[in-house]
Design a protein that fits this description.
Structural class: alpha+beta
CATH architecture of the largest domain: Sandwich
Helix content: 25-40%
CATH topology of the largest domain: Jelly Rolls
Distance between the termini: 62 Å
Strand content: 15-25%
Strand order of the largest sheet: 1-4-11-6-9
Oligomer: single chain
Length: 275
């Protein structure tokens, strides 16, 4: 059976973690503890249609057809949880046995140090997965936290059940294992890209590296990025005002155009000159 429920109030504000109603810091325990009191919850068979498009477009469900989704979710003991904006989904310092798959809304992965400093690692959009590496390594401790940037729904899948094939859906299990490996490889590539951006010496060079990667990812020179200005500055480890200044200069020089998170990259043939 797979069930759906909402979380208790674990709220986030910059540099501060707030707990209410005695919620455990350990997300794994939170899931397991909640399951113990929600065994009577209604199955989601009648409610999965609203998530079906997102699931089937997710790389984790690549090659899986809609008719097989219910049996797979039953077999994997899927959990769907709803979070309010700024709620903590996973907290650094804990462990997890679950892979998260964002169904609706938006989440963000943040690395925080002891003194409250933050670095944005990645944004999570519907269909994206997270925590795979940690779930596949049971003893590993999370060194990042995941927060809901907007109200969202997350499906959690027990990775041990995913990696242990069963006679009922073994073929689909194998497909999901292959998909999981592809997801992990993709995450490693993106981590390498981030390291490449970070290795650039100037704010402009970091922006050029990042925007070029996004252009290749989207297959064209016009695209939306998943970050606000502050999040982009954190992601590239640059000053927010310096980032905005450099973007303004690049726009004035005709290299780029943008409105909020929408960017258009322009080539020299389109009129910009290096100054």
């Amino acid at each position: 059976m797979y069930v759906e429920f909402s979380t208790l109030g674990m709220l986030y504000s910059p540099g501060t973690l707030l707990l209410s109603q005695g919620v455990s810091l350990c997300h794994t325990n939170l899931i397991q503890g909640t399951l113990l009191v929600t065994k009577e919850a209604s199955p989601l068979r009648g409610n999965m249609n609203k998530y079906m498009d997102t699931l089937l477009k997710s790389s984790l469900f690549s090659g899986i057809i809609a008719d097989d989704v219910d049996s797979i979710l039953d077999c994997l003991g899927a959990i769907i949880k709803k979070y309010q904006k700024n709620e903590c989904i996973l907290m650094a310092g804990n462990t997890t046995e679950y892979i998260g798959l964002l169904l609706t809304g938006k989440a963000i992965v943040i690395q925080e140090d002891y003194w409250g400093g933050q670095s944005v690692m990645s944004a999570i959009l519907p269909g994206h997965t997270f925590a795979e590496s940690y779930a596949c390594t049971p003893s590993s401790v999370l060194d990042v936290s995941v927060y809901a940037e907007a109200a969202c729904s997350v499906m959690f899948l027990n990775v041990q059940k995913m990696l242990t094939t069963c006679p009922v859906t073994c073929g689909k299990h194998n497909q999901m294992i292959r998909n999981l490996l592809c997801d992990l490889a993709g995450k490693n590539l993106r981590l390498g890209e981030k390291s490449k951006h970070m290795s650039q010496k100037t704010t402009r060079d970091k922006l050029l590296s990042y925007l070029s990667s996004e252009m290749h990812r989207h297959g064209g020179n016009e695209f939306d990025i998943p970050f606000s200005r502050q999040q982009l500055a954190d992601f590239l480890s640059v000053d927010r005002s310096g980032l905005s200044t450099e973007l303004g200069r690049m726009k004035d020089e005709g290299m780029i155009d943008f409105h909020k998170s929408h960017f258009i990259l322009k080539s020299p043939a389109q009129g910009w000159t290096d100054v």
